[in-house]
Structures are given as C-alpha cells and as structure tokens.
Amino acid sequence: MKEIIVFLNGSFVPSSKANISVFDRGLLYGDGLFETMRSYRGKVFALDEHLQRMSRSAEFIRMHFSNNTARWHRIINKLLIYNKLDDKDSYIRITITRGVDYSRLTPSSHNLRPTEIVVVKPIPQRIKKNQVSGIKAVTLTFFKSSSVLSNIKSLNFLDNVIGAMMAKDMDTQEAIFISPEGTVLEGTVSNIFIIKNGRVKTPPLSSKILPGITRQTVIDIANKIGLEVAETPIRKIDLLKSDEAFVTNSIIEVTPLIIVDGGNIGGGRHGEITQKILKGYKDIIRRKEG
Fold this sequence. Notes:
Number of domains: 2
Shape: globular
Number of strands: 15
CATH topology of the largest domain: D-amino Acid Aminotransferase, Chain A, domain 2
Order of helices and strands: EEHEEHHEEHEHEEEEHEHEEEH
CATH class of the largest domain: Alpha Beta
Strand content: 25-35%
Helix content: 25-40%
CATH architecture of the largest domain: Alpha-Beta Barrel
Largest sheet: 9 strands, mixed
Structural class: alpha+beta
C-alpha cells in the first residue's frame, strides 16, 4: 500500500515522517479533541458543523482552536489531492491536542500551541455492504463511565476502544452502552435510533451522549418526511423489541441494526422506515454535491 500523506502542524508529510513530541499532552493525558467526517467525490460533507462542535468542545476544555473554515477546507482539499482521493469517497479525521508541555497535569500556560493533525483515507467497502445487509451489535451494561466529557469528542476514548474490542470478540460490529438504570445510551462510534409503531425514538442528549452531526441530520430528515420523532429515554427491552433500529455517524451514515444480543430486530432485516431515512440522507448528499 502506498504511504499516505498527512497534515501535521502546517506541513504535508508522509505518514512515516509525521512525528510528535513525547511531551505532547494528547499523548500523555488524552488532552485533546477529534472530529471524523466524510467527503463525497472530493467534497467534504458538513465540515462547518464538525468545526463548530470542535470549537464548542475546545472552549469547554479551555483549549485554543482556530475555527477557520476556509483554512481547514484548504488543508483537507490538498490532502485529498496528494492522496489521489479528490474524486473518491473518503474518511477524514482532524485531531487537535493542547500541544507540547513539559509541566505536570495542569497546563503550564493557556497559550500553548496546539498540535494539529489531519488524516484522510479511502472509505472501506464494507460501509455500503452493511447499509444493505445490516449489522449486529451487543449491549454492554454498567460499562461506559459518565462524566462532563461525555458530550464532547475528546481523545479520552478508552471506554469506546474496549467496547469495540468486546464487540469484535463477540463477532458483532458495534457495542451499545447501557446505563446503570437500564437505558440505551450510544454505540462505541454511533448514535442509536429505534422505530416502534412508526414512531422514531433516540436517546436524549441529557443522557450524556455525543451530539452527533448525523444524529441531528436524521432527526431533521424524519421530521421532514412526516415521521414523529421523540428524543426520549429508551430501555434496553425497547431496543430488543423494536420494529426497526439503526445506527448513525458521519462515516457509516445510516446503517440498519438487525441483530442485538443474538436476537433479531424486525425479523433480522432492514426496515422500510430506515431505508426511507437513508434515502433522505443520500438525497441531501447529492444536493450538496450538485
């Protein structure tokens, strides 16, 4: 495989030459943020929304972040060209850390220079396949810790890493976190939706889940096509007995969830409403491309 070109602190370099300091706070403490998004035939989708979320998160953790949309567009577009992905669908990740600091846990200054990293890669073929065949998931109870960081996409991602490893061990594609009270929270990399009697439900942001960009887009689509949408607590039993279920994020878009904990959702097939919402999402992408 040809070595990819990445962006690091103002330079475009081969990934093997992209080195960061052993004193970078992102490495030492997970002190940073990231955003993942997707491009379609070279056009980045929802970049503004992702940058706005990163800007809000940076403000919350008191970290400097330059929310210059035009600048990030230029960086990403150059990376897509350098990696010959400017006419393809691609995965894009922006990572920002607080920067290099030789002090202890408390940052030595509020004016540290952030470390900026951008990586682009081709979209895996399995994404499109999973949108047709659906995916399997396992639930994990009393697992994901709840904190003030639950609503931001920080580099403190170990709960999710372990959850994803456990999902793989159980031959499933996603793990769904269940709260101590027995309510559905989110997946390791996704937001969760269920459909029962034609009504769409998703856990509320007050349950300390990530405010997904795709999650909000899906809510808007469902409202537009006349579906009733409720942001409300969902019990585990509600998920298991739902007529349809699906997961969302910027990379997988809208993907049917057909098996949870070994039991079929909706007969183990993707549902009609899920497909309508996926079509609505694809329509938005086509309009953005046009």
